Structure formats: structure tokens, C-alpha cells
From TrEMBL:
Naturally occurring in which organism (per UniProt): Microbacterium tenebrionis
Protein name as it appears in the record: ROK family protein
InterPro entries per the UniProt record, alphabetical: ATPase_NBD, ROK
Upper taxonomic lineage: Bacteria, Bacillati, Actinomycetota, Actinomycetes, Micrococcales
Family (UniProt): Belongs to the ROK (NagC/XylR) family.
Pfam family, one: ROK
């Protein structure tokens, strides 16, 4: 992982918990990340919240032992799913297995530190606002487009959370009926969600289903579209149309100054950003056209956001 800095302030511990791995680091008083690492998320078993906090305590112990001169004043960690950050509750996480788990209280007791808890993408969005692609704006929508589509909203420079339920842009319905007979049943159980058409995972899956080929992710499908593959071109065109429709709706409702796009699909570069800008502009009339900009912090954003939130407690 690329080492990054968050500026001067109190030393803090930070953790970014995912279903596959956990990113962790100790940030010193200069804001430099020490001992940044990525370790597998252990099987969480029948007591997922307790098991996770035990793992964070183990990682904390390793980081403190390696850097005994850096004494953290607080800790921050971020998790996926529905998160009520104000209450410190992991409301629901299908891939990690908890429901209404008092994550912040468990971590504070185990690590013996003040603890900040937040949603992973919302925290990454906060880091983009403070350090990355959204620095110049206070009214911002952030989309992370990869296997699925996750989102976060900042209004007046403050994350809008709605108790953890805001920002589920990937699960906004954009289709009433399946194009060309395709089933658009989402993993969430709903039908026609944005991420069933416009996520990197969906683009690759749809191409494989129609051709029998196994593309090396969405970027290969996009390259095939540019080379004249008719199936790839149609799938990519439908993804861009769905994404521009969703962004037009967000623009009409929220009036964001900027929409920041990160995740694996953002690596498509101009093939994504130029097309989205053009198609979004074509859907708008009197609305303020938001700037469409790439995220800048990459995979480190969630961890940096966790550290920034921990700093707020120190």
C-alpha cells in the first residue's frame, strides 16, 4: 500500500475492515502512517463482532510493540454494511455476519482508547473531502464502483448518514424490465438496481453470460468495445446510460458541486469520465452541472478516513 500522511495532530490507530482483509496503521504526530499493512480478515464464527474486535486488539498490540514511542490517543475503524456511526452500532453486515452490534463500545473496552466508528465508503468519502479529489467542494457525492457500487453524500461539508441508510446509490432502481431478457436480480434481493448494470462486476458478468467468454474484468470489456466488439459495446453503452441516469437524478435532487468516482471502474480513465460528463450534461437542463472527478486516494481512503475520525476524538 502507498504510505500517505494526514497532517499533524495526535497519534492514532486506524483500521479499515473488509470481508476479505483488514488494513491497519498507526499514525504518528506528523500524520505519517507507520506499519501500514493488509492482513486477512479471520473467520468470524458465531460471535462475529467479538471476534473482529479481538483481531483489532491483536493488530493494535503488534503496531504498538513495533513503535513503542508512538502512543495513540484514540482509534478509528470502519466497516461495511449499514452503520449508525452516531450510536456506534453496526446495524447490519451481510458479509461479516452481525446485526445491531455495539462495535464502538466493544472496541473502546478492548483497546482502552476512545474509538470512532464509521462506514467504510462514507469514511473514504470524508478522506477524499479532506485530502483528495473533493477538497475544493462541500456538496459532494462519492461513488466507489467496483464489484458493486457504494456511495456517500456530503452536504455542507458534513456526511449525510440518515442513521446509516443514506448513500446506497448502487441499490437505486434504474430498470423496470430486463433489457434483452436478462435477469437483473440484485444480490440485495431487489430488481434492477444500478449495480446490476453499471458496476465493474456486472459489466464483466453480462459479457460472459452473452458470449461464453471470460473477460479479465470490466476493463477488458471496455477495451473490446473500443475495438469494435458489438456485444461489449452494447453492454458498456447500457452501463454508461444507467450511470448517467442515476447521476442526473442525484444532481436534480442534491445539486452537488462535484461527483467523485473511485473504485476499479475509475481506472478506465477517459473512456469513463468523458462519456459520463457528456451523457450527464445531455440529461440536464437548468441544473448545475457537477464536476465529475476521479478519486485520488485509492485503496487507502477508508483507512485515512478512519484515522481522521480518530483525530476528532483526541
Amino acid at each position: 500500500m502507498t504510505l500517505r500522511e494526514i497532517g499533524r495532530g495526535a497519534p492514532v490507530l486506524a483500521f479499515d475492515v473488509g470481508g476479505t482483509d483488514i488494513k491497519s496503521g498507526l499514525f504518528d504526530a506528523d500524520g505519517t502512517a507507520l506499519g501500514m499493512r493488509r492482513t486477512p480478515t479471520p473467520p468470524l464464527g458465531s460471535e462475529p463482532a467479538t471476534t473482529l474486535i479481538d483481531e483489532l486488539a491483536r493488530l493494535s498490540g503488534e503496531l504498538r510493540a513495533q513503535h513503542p514511542d508512538v502512543v495513540p490517543a484514540a482509534g478509528g475503524f470502519v466497516v461495511p454494511g449499514i452503520v449508525d456511526a452516531a450510536a456506534g452500532i453496526g446495524v447490519f453486515a451481510s458479509n461479516l455476519g452481525w446485526r445491531d452490534a455495539p462495535l464502538r463500545a466493544l472496541a473502546a473496552e478492548r483497546l482502552q482508547l476512545p474509538i470512532a466508528l464509521d462506514h467504510d465508503v462514507r469514511s473514504a468519502s470524508w478522506a477524499e473531502h479532506e485530502l483528495g479529489g473533493a477538497r475544493a467542494h462541500d456538496d459532494v457525492v462519492v461513488l466507489i464502483i467496483g464489484t458493486g457500487i457504494a456511495g456517500a453524500i456530503l452536504i455542507g461539508g458534513v456526511p449525510y448518514t440518515a442513521g446509516g441508510y443514506a448513500g446506497e446509490i448502487g441499490h437505486a432502481p434504474i430498470s423496470e424490465g430486463p433489457p434483452r431478457g436478462e435477469a437483473l436480480l440484485c444480490t440485495c434481493g431487489a430488481y434492477g438496481c444500478l449495480e446490476t448494470v453499471a458496476s465493474a462486476g456486472a459489466i464483466a458478468r453480462r459479457y460472459a453470460a452473452e458470449t461464453g467468454a471470460t473477460p479479465d474484468g470490466a476493463r477488458e470489456v471496455i477495451a473490446l468495445a473500443g475495438a469494435g466488439d458489438a456485444v461489449a459495446a452494447r453492454i458498456w453503452d447500457e452501463a454508461l446510460d444507467a450511470l448517467s441516469l442515476a447521476l442526473a437524478q442525484l444532481t436534480a435532487v442534491l445539486g452537488p458541486q462535484a461527483i467523485v468516482i473511485g473504485g476499479g471502474l475509475s481506472r478506465a480513465g477517459d473512456a469513463l469520465f468523458d462519456e459520463v460528463r457528456t451523457r450527464l450534461a445531455g440529461r440536464l437542463s437548468f441544473h448545475r452541472m457537477p464536476q465529475i472527478v476521479p478519486a485520488q486516494l485509492g485503496d487507502d481512503a477508508g483507512l485515512l478516513g478512519a484515522a481522521l475520525h480518530a483525530r476528532e476524538l483526541s
